[in-house]
Amino acid sequence: AQSVTQLDSHVSVSEGTPVLLRCNYSSSYSPSLFWYVQHPNKGLQLLLKYTSAATLVKGINGFEAEFKKSETSFHLTKPSAHMSDAAEYFCVVSGGYQKVTFGTGTKLQVIP
Amino acid sequence: DAGVIQSPRHEVTEMGQEVTLRCKPISGHDYLFWYRQTMMRGLELLIYFNNNVPIDDSGMPEDRFSAKMPNASFSTLKIQPSEPRDSAVYFCASSLGGGNIQYFGAGTRLSVL
User: Fold this and answer.
1) Which residue blocks in chain B are alpha helix, DSSP H?
2) Do B99 and A32 touch (CB under 8 A)?
């Protein structure tokens, strides 16, 4: 079985403060993990991808995520939020048989 | 490459009408996915194809929905007859390999009145 849980449906941060979006996964295989971002009225865009190389993955726009196998987590972080980061973020797990499972999304609000 | 291209971007129709959504995947990609996104249900996988063959259509809500991929560069999602509850944004995505990065189109916003 394969699943992904995004622990917060909404996160609100002030501009310039750190961002933490939490994701836990379950997979019977060595998974690939992804974070996608969706800005309002846009399609989803890949932020970063983990595929069993370095556990700390750097993505676009200053985001990064750390794969922690012992905690089955793949949390997304950014040191300093920008207004343009306001969007919805999806954590995705890909395991065996090419199955891809999307999380339910976390809406990030950035307060000026 | 122009990316995944979906048409139309917006569709407004009346209940009972047939609706056809179109998708052109990225050239060379062998997987194509159709998703539906609503406020209530979030992002749902409807169906996906590998090398033009439907692999998993368990997400298709009912028989009113059908999808085809006649060749590697084109896919359609048809709703017949349409109902107001079908109003949503429909996304198409393609990838090279099933578990790899999916590239999404801009979506079709469907409103059924």
Assistant:
1) none
2) yes
Q: pLDDT tens, position by position, for chain A (112 residues)?
A: 788 999 999 999 999 999 999 999 998 778 889 999 999 888 899 999 998 778 899 999 999 999 998 999 999 999 999 999 999 999 998 876 656 888 999 999 999 9
Which 3 state secondary structure label does DSSP give B91? strand
Q: How far apart are CA B88 and CA B109, in angstroms?
A: 6
A112 touches chain B (CB under 8 A): no
**A35 reaches B (C-beta below 8 A):** no
Of the CA atoms within 13 Å of residue A40, those in its CB half-sphere come to 5
Q: Is the dihedral of CA A28, B96, B7, B53 positive or negative?
A: negative
| B chain contacts of residue A49, beta-carbon cutoff 8 Å | 101
Beta carbon pairs, A and B, within 8 Å: 46
User: Would the CA dihedral through A89, A93, A99, A103 be positive or negative?
Assistant: negative
Name the one residue in this structure whose structure tokens are 């865009």: A45
